[in-house]
Amino acid sequence: MKVKSILVSQPQPTSESSPYYSLGEKQKVKVDFRPFIHVEGLNAKDIRQQKIDLSKYNAIVLTSRNAVDHFFRIAQEMRFIVPDAMKYFCQSEAVAYYLQKYIVYRKRKVYIGGKSFLDLKPILKKHKNLNFLVPSSDTLKPEVIKVMNDEKLNWKRAIMYQTVSSDLSDLNDVEYDILVFFSPSGIKSLFENFPDFKQDQTKIAAFGKSTVSAANEMGLKIDIPVPTPETPSMAMALEKFIKENNK
Question: 57-76 burial string, b = 16+ CB within 10 Å, else e?
Fold first, then answer.
């Protein structure tokens, strides 16, 4: 089967240098983008029901840009003035850089991990005397919980936002040769929107073990698992697959 169309279950890239654009041009395939999921924030009442008092914490652990946005949104909604002495522990440089949207770096204590949450472990270990708040979605990666508990830190999770399925009803009569997924939530959204979905000749590309596992649980066959040593990125994996099938 020749590949003519791809649907990527993410927002359309804003950068013209996105590898998906060059993929479409080079391989002469149609590449469309559509978020299968979106984030909805909880309100201050929801946070209070979790028995969260922001004034009790002097350290915030931030694992994503969404966590940054929703922590400061909730703080504003609760009329809580975040003190200058607050310490921020960011999973990555990208999260720390995004934090500058809300704070002035030179006036605050910001600690930065690496590529994964495990890289924050030695830094957190040095600050055991702090009270940590972890703003999160309704799903929190197991390694975050494990690190915080293993180090016996005084911490609490605050669910400030949740991932929900987007309405995809307008795609009901649209067919693509490849569907691209990046999270279990994307797989869940597919079947919430189309309970009778049959894969048939449609190829499935899935990034990450948890996404592959979620797809398998729903009876989907993964044709393009990513990452692999040969194809560490989704765009590379798609290009390789197309080259092999569009000869």
Answer: bbbbbbbbebbbbbbbbbbe
